[in-house]
Design goal:
homodimer; Arc Repressor Mutant, subunit A; 5-stranded antiparallel sheet; BirA Bifunctional Protein, domain 2; alpha+beta; SH3 type barrels
């Protein structure tokens, strides 16, 4: 409802639009229109009202509100449903709860701020208010659980393709960190629930550091984290970038459903900065540490490493470039 | 508390034991003891009380009560915590909810009856009151999600080893159905939640058809289901069998934690009736059907099938012997 009002205001441009015509379009009372306008103002929309003329949009907030994101969003699955939070503990936690209760594929949970943002293995993920894009998407792919890691690669490629639109060249470190100057720009956490032969749902959480200045990061991560602001030298519209990410994500996912992961793997390889490098690996299973040369990504999305003792396949773990 | 009372009564054998000594042992009032005795009687314990003598156990119910199962149960992990339901929709559903809220590894959910028992892919699983063992166990193994299928093999082997104690030879059809005369005796459903590199929890649901007569099965499954009663010709004590299953499960799981799945695979091969057979496979991923000869179980627990077009590896699916 409010999305439609924003859309009408935007379409009107510099013109006023009467409360009556909004009421007519939405088949609600003029008082109800006024209440929605008040709500939009609370969300940061600057809306001028003038007697006998109606309403005019002066300024939209730089917030990741569904009313901002969904207008002009060109997707078929991802983001058709969206839950928005000014602040939440973790978008993945909310998305998992929604998925458990049957939320449909493509549902997005987005927040201006996460107070308990999580990375892999319960590591904290810094997610300050209004300075990044912190969201989770629910997918229900008809693939085997062992293929889930490739959905994580897909998410990284989607963000990379979106960055491309802004002439920002993403560098993906296996499996799914996006880096700039060997510092982390984007983190992804995929969680899975299913049976042995079937994924019930995946929740893919994506955190993009957008407009965070170097010295705004907590001291302990200043050496390892960076932002698109630092990369490009200028602030980015989170709304525009978020739309781009959702659109690229949608495009890739539809392709995966129809044709499998070949293109994801191919695009991943184009963006990757791991293959060909001497790396150190800490395996996720047993915590074993070893070194070698990353030589390939196999068809499961696992990393093939050439070590002094022969080839090893890493399904999950931490990789650092030596 | 009630478990201790039952234990004291059992230890007393034919003798009476005074309310006072129970009260003293448990540090509760005699009135509280009397209330527990009443509760036990409600659960089916026949307890005689005689003035000036106290209480004597005449008969214990054939129910899978923690007070029955845990006394004399020789396990270190599995079954130390137990939730019991006379009737529940699905023990897996309850176990998943408990696991989500942090229940510890080894926690068991058991029911006399499931009203909405589930098999793989939302198939129904017939679970009539008091005639089988319907339980779920929560595990938190430190293994990769891709190794989860081997936990399912482990569960099948545990039941097979327990049957062995009663001189009943189990036949395992890949991956984890236990058969007798090509009819299903035992079904297993494993559900998983985790990250890409980490299992948060597994819930393994096991349904054992114990004392179900052939004509008691619903007509539509009479041709494909059977029971231990039909196999051995005589009714089995569910309590004794359940303890055996939990003990074998515990033993195998402790070994897996220390040494990996080698012994599980080896024992599985001993019990299996799939390898060497001409089979038809319906793949879980894409629903593709094909035929071939089952030639091996690989190190991931997947089935290797020799087809006219070469070897194929099946990670999940339905297998029927031709």
């Amino acid at each position: 409802m409010r999305k439609t009002i924003v859309e009408m205001l935007k379409n009107a441009g510099e013109n006023f639009i009467s409360g009556e015509s909004i009421a007519g379009e939405l088949k609600i009372s003029r008082t109800a229109v006024w209440k929605h306008i008040q709500k939009l103002r609370e969300h940061g929309y600057e809306i001028i009202s003038r007697e006998k003329c109606g309403y005019k949009l002066k300024d939209a907030p730089d917030l990741l509100l569904p009313s901002e994101i969904q207008i002009g969003l060109d997707t078929k699955i991802i983001g058709l449903n969206m839950e928005y939070y000014p602040s939440v503990d973790s978008t993945n936690r909310v998305a998992k709860a929604l998925a458990y209760h049957g939320a449909e594929e493509g549902t997005i949970v987005v927040a201006e701020e996460q107070t308990g943002g999580k990375g892999r293995l319960d590591r904290t993920f810094y997610s300050p208010r209004g300075k990044g894009i912190w969201f989770s998407v629910i997918l229900r792919p008809k693939i085997l659980p062992k293929e889930a890691p490739k959905c994580t690669l897909m998410a990284a490629v989607a963000v990379a393709e979106a960055m491309n639109r802004f002439n920002l060249k993403a560098q993906i470190k296996w499996p799914n960190d996006i880096m700039f100057n060997w510092r982390k720009l984007v983190g992804i956490l995929t969680e899975m629930t299913g049976e042995i032969g079937k994924i019930t749902y995946l929740v893919i959480g994506v955190g993009i550091n957008v407009n965070i200045k170097r010295d705004e990061f907590p001291e302990e991560i200043q050496g390892v984290a960076t932002s698109l602001l630092e990369m490009s030298g200028e602030p980015l519209s989170r709304v525009v970038l978020f739309r781009a990410v959702l659109e690229e994500f949608d495009k890739l996912y539809i392709e995966v459903k129809a044709l499998g992961f070949d293109r994801v793997i191919e695009r991943w390889k184009k963006y990757n900065v791991t293959l060909g490098k001497q790396i150190q690996v800490i395996s996720a299973g047993d915590g074993e540490t070893f070194t070698g040369k990353a030589v390939d990504l196999n068809s499961d999305g696992a990393l093939v490493v050439e070590t002094a003792q022969g080839r090893r396949t890493v399904y999950a773990g931490d990789v650092s470039i030596r």
